[in-house]
Give the backbone structure.
Amino acid sequence: MNSLRKCKAVFTTAMISTLLSSAILSTVVMAEPLGYPEKEELKFGFIKLTDMAPIAIAYENGYFEDEGLYVTIEAQANWKVLLDGVIDGRLDGAHMLAGQPLAATMGYGTKAKIVTPFSMDLNGNAITVSNSIWEQMKVNIPKQADGKPVHPIKADALKPVVDKYRDQGKAFNMGMVFPVSTHNYELRYWLAAGGIHPGFYAPHKGDTSGKLDAEVLLSVTPPPQMPSTLEAGTIYGYCVGEPWNQQAVFKNIGVPVVTDYEIWKNNPEKVFGLSESFIKKYPNTTIRLTRALIRAAYWLDENNNANRAKAVKILSQSNYVGADYEVIANSMEGTFEYEKGDKRQAPDFNVFFRYNATYPYYSDAIWYLTQMRRWGQISEDKSDAWYKDLASQVYRPDIYQKAANSLVKDKLMKASDFPDFTKLDGYRAPQKHFIDNIVYDGRTPNKYINKFAIGLKQGDKI
Amino acid sequence: MSDVSKLNKPWALMPRLSRSQNKKISLWAASIILPLFGILVFLALWALAAQKIDTSLGKFPGPIAVVSQFSALYGEHQAERVKADAFYLRQDKRNAERLVKDPNYVVKIRNYTGKESFLDQIVTSLITVMSGFFVAAILAIPLGIAIGLNKPLNMAFNPIIQIFKPVSPLAWLPLVTMVVSAVYVSDDPLVSKAFLNSMITVSLCSIWPMVINTAIGVSTIEQDLKNVSRVLRLSTYMHIKKIVLPSSIPMIFTGMRLSLGVAWMVLIAAEMLAQSPGLGKFVWDEFQNGSSESLARIMAAVIVIGFIGFLLDKGMLKLQQLVSWDKAKGIT
């Protein structure tokens, strides 16, 4: 027995030393200068949202060209068209919802291996309800001394309204942008935290509408159409990225009630998605485009958002986001307007670089997977190891690290701008800042799922 | 007879001539003044109605807002040209630098990567519609001739034509997209997939009027002409060349004119949905932008789309008149 244990110990040390030496080896390889890009002409897709900013800035500030990349940027009609574009090669890469590469790799929806070396931003979404729902909700919200509602506003205030509609036999519809979107999970998280059931998915039974047991019916609407769909009365509220919440305030058709920063402080949002075949075929191109995006994200947050006004000017061009300057500026310049006139400080509403925003943490990926499991998109129990494995297939911090190191070497950025890569294992420390005070630790996804009152737990199946 | 009588009474000639001249002048005046009047009334009604319509993007654009957008769009076009020139200069410099470091590098000049201006998008749309239309014509005319000459073939094909004719481009597009992306795989594609998608959709929708009209034209050739062909024992090829084509040209061109109209209409929808560059995408992008200028820009595009459609139709009409041997027949 003892000898066996010894044997094991020797084996483990051997393993560790091989791992270490291979790590050293890889840093040695890293020291070689970065080669020219294999593919120079690239086409990137995006959806008209302010968080596409790193792509626009990398283009406009010439960061792509600095890498020898000639990039064309093209707006896409919706998230599905965008994902199909990356899968079939019409697009070389795109601004994606964090859930998209995960779901595609897992085979939920279209199956295709999509990876991401770069996380595009933190926060940046909000939940907006129509004016009439707001009037009904408002009475349930405690007031501050100045008469304004106390923030964050919880879905508890919405619950009586939803109950009333249900008693009258009316469906309570809300919009989100895609079944595996951040917005779907955020909206569900917020509703469930207030005791409102957003409904389950049951893909194994062919039910991908996500409305089983639902008290609020969620449906898909492309981001730019959210305000007009709300105005038409098809939905009573929605969760979407900017500028489509501020647009509702400007057009006087709705009131943003809660930002995702308040639902989960500094939540990971969009990623830059590439197909796995692309990064295998064009490794230098992949590193180079990651370098350009890192520089753009850095510029966006530089000197305490000093460049934001310039960024907003670029984003308001018709070929990028194209909304009016004032609308985009409302959330990009460190404030957020809730009810008309209730403008509050929100310096971290859009984070592009601070708090290691661009680093693709495995734990960020796993959070999305836990929510897919919670709402039944992953219909069966999975082990913690499965979550870990899938996250490491999709999120590629190794590429990010190569890009960051070479930027430091070329003196374009400082080592202090980045996290200490030698100390990173890809997991953020347990995160506490959720609206329902539940702590998230990416290392133990199953334990995390079991903490929720509403949602599937370990062992549950619909 | 009558000419002789006119010569005998020259006074009778005078008033008649002036009367017809009068008629010409008044017709000419009417053809200018009446449309002008119509346009003015339309503009006035538009301006009045626009003020009354409040959208969530502000007031509906009136004529003045649209005109100002035309000049803004032209300004953007010029600004984009300046950016493009700077882009090429930077590229030349970068290529030269790289050649110094890497002498084996094969210099390649890449096209400007910035946005397509409104004018560029008009050109792109025209190229797409024309290529889609020509592909359709190349398929439709021989098919129409074959069907027109051969009764059994006509009966066999007729149900298929009748079923596919009314299909909207929006229904074809998803199928076309998936097929193109599966079949058209190339590392360095000659044309983009988006272009192919909208072009093929245009072809699929514009092929039918041409097939039907060609077939009708061919099948209604006068019996006398057919008899001539039979007497002369013309070969099938000569029969088609000397008898069928000349006599069915007016109908073929009527079909082509109809098809081009369909093609132009389909193209805008296809571009919108396929997100392939062009006027349709311009309209869609502006709709998505939801800025305070979006509606005026869309209205500007609507006018341009209409005007180009009108020009295409007039162009086809001129062509039809040129090639038609019987100038009076069936052309309006």
Chain B has a mean pLDDT of 84. Chain B has two domains: 68-115, 116-323. The interface with chain A takes residues 56-57, 90-91, 94, 98, 102, 105, 108, 110, 113, 115, 181, 185, 192-194, 273, 275, 284-292, 294, 297 of chain B (CB under 8 Å).
